[in-house]
Specification:
The complex is a heterodimer of chains A (344) and B (434). With 344 residues, chain A is mostly helical. Chain A is built from 14 helices and 2 strands. Chain A has one domain. The N and C termini of chain A lie far apart (56 Å). Chain B is 71% helix and 5% strand. In chain B, helix 1 crosses helix 6, helix 2 runs antiparallel to helix 3 and helix 8 crosses helix 10. The radius of gyration of chain B is 23 Å and the shape is globular. Classes of the chains: A mainly alpha (344), B mainly alpha (434). Chains A and B meet through helix 3, helix 4, helix 5, helix 7 and helix 14 of A and helix 2, helix 3 and helix 14 of B.
Chain lengths: 344, 434
Amino acid sequence: MIEPVVLLALALVLSLTAYALSGGADYGGGLWDLLATGATAERQRATIAHAIGPVWEANHVWLIVAIVIVFTGFPRAFAAASIFLHLPLLLVLVGIVLRGSAFVFRAYGPDDPRHERFWGRVFAIASTATPLGLGVIIGAVTEGRLPSSPEGSFTAVYLAPWLTPFSLAVGAFALTLFAYLAAVYLTLEAGDGEERDAFRRRGLMSGLVVGGLAALVLWLAQPDVRIALLASPWAVPLHVATGATAIAALMFLWIERYQLARMAAASQVAFILWGWALAQYPYAIRPHLTLAAASAPANVQILLLQVLGVGAVVLLPSLLYLFGIFGPRGRPDTGAVSQSEPPL
Amino acid sequence: MDLVYARWQMGLSLAFHIIFAVIGMAMPVMMVAAEVAWLRTRRREYFELATRWARGTAILFAVGAVSGTVLSFELGLLWPRFMAFAGPIIGMPFSLEGFAFFLEAIFLGLYLYGWQKLRPGAHLFAGVMVSIAGALSGAFVVTANAWMNTPTGFRLGDGRILDVDPFAAMFNPAAGAQVVHMLLAAYAAVGVAVAGLHARFLLRHPAAAFHRRACAIALTVAVPASLLQPLSGDWAGRVVARTQLAKFAALEGHFVTQPYAPLRIGGLPDAEARETRYALEVPGGLSLLAHGDPSAPVSGLNDFPRELWPPVTVVHPAFQIMVAIGTWLAGLAVWATMLWWRKSLFESRRFLKAAMLSTPLGFVALEAGWMVTELGRQPWIVQGVMKTADAVTPMPKLLLPFVLFTVIYTGLAIVVIALIRRTVLETTPRGAHG
């Protein structure tokens, strides 16, 4: 019988995986909006907006599910992260608020190019800042510089735990990973070949940067983290799987097999996340707080698992329906609610 | 000082979010009603209404979703010690709310972007799901707040929580009354506001079919909610009278424990002099309302140590404002029903003027009501268990995030108002004045 702590940690990792694969790619889309250049720039922006429009709010809820699992199931970890990582969490929150608001302000605003440009810019910048913050937070709970008590100077307690080369590198890694995922997804959303090729090139480029940043993250990691990432029994098969899917994704992009590229890239991101989760186990926050020590009473964890199970039964068919309707092959009808002719 | 900033930031975030949250609950109901009317009558105005309200919902729901995310993180950022303690106990309603919110977001996506992609029945179903999930997520969150007022479902033993029963916590004594009061408030506030906005157009263009239909749908939502709200308020009040004696005394401006306690209408409490001046007093009224017996004694604030008093000078006036508005809206609902009975709902300019002037009142009452319940619980964050001052984060410099969110939320409020005016209200629909 697996302990509820482990099962709940697994549920958390699955929620984070779903968030990375869906919400993460939405942020990546924002970065490509910011970086859109060339003849197809405006078409790229429109494609990104169309791809994100119907699904970003649902995708965002994975983060809420994750946070609820943390504060219900691992309340002491939530409290500790909230105290010592207040500032990067603040960055993430501001990013979330501005990204979502700016997106709807642009989508439902008046047809005024200045209005669209301004909110498009806010959307793109906020989409870029948020994954940086999320990555920094993951980096900080992994690196293990969080103090065990809030005694000390402001810098020591509220800046030093996360303002480190390692955490910043993880932030950059998360941003690049999401951008890479978005570029690969967008090859399937693009309206024409020219635009598709633009996303393809972006996917190839960012895929290579992901590899470089992964090496940088490993190089900057503390010895015990590096050992956990590289030397544990599960590490070799996972690294092989990550490497294989990474190479496969780049190869499929190169030969323009976009469906396969998408599958490979999504698997690659999931493997990376699981590799991190296994390296982090049994800690919630290194080095003071294990999952067991951070846990809520066992009966609460069991009940939460049951609720998550029942919830999934309602949720997954609805999600499949949503993505079935608006998946890459089924783009939302242009203009959606702004169209003035009644459907018949 | 940091405690003050933390409280201001929390208050600001709640006050901001609640507006979008209730709109996210009530607008989809009207949007669905308009779509049903469109499918049945095939009148263009109904389609126009459904799409416009959908457009408004899209903007307002998004801001509600992101500001709600802020709140769920702020619980930890500002009150980590509260969450370390209460997380396992009140996590259940938050988990359920997570799923309800998920369904809301999924089906809203389908609704907004699926006018052409979905068959009419499926599209309508998506709207119905948004409405149901919206009400459910509101209800779940309110049970968590009710737990802070009447904490149950756990035991304290040597500084640890024991015997946690998440469902007992969720179905705490205040949950039922608070949930019903909040849901009705949402439908009343939004319904009245929308009816009022369209009444403004009807005063200028009395024959405009578009605005008549809009106003009628909004009133269909607002009238029953406004009529039921005083009853649910009475229920909520009696729960408070039984479970939170200091809060009850503060919201009534009641200092001296006595039988035949008077109901005070209006009045300004003076905490130093320990009396409420300038109130219209109904002898025995408070005892009657609180306990169903005019001779029943009602505890006054004097029974409690001064440091356990809620800020009575704010709580009592806020409560009076809420009750006054609730009473007025119930009266407006009776008036609307009478006019509708006589088939002259839109003939009465006086009614339309009253409706127009009432546009913001439901929201004012909503904010006042949240001030009553949150300030009225102070100095506790969990009634009788944990003080707000003991829950606050040790992080200093909380002025910075407070100012940051004030600036962001002020900016967003301005943009949202401008956008709603431009995209939902001002564009004249085709055939609107015919």
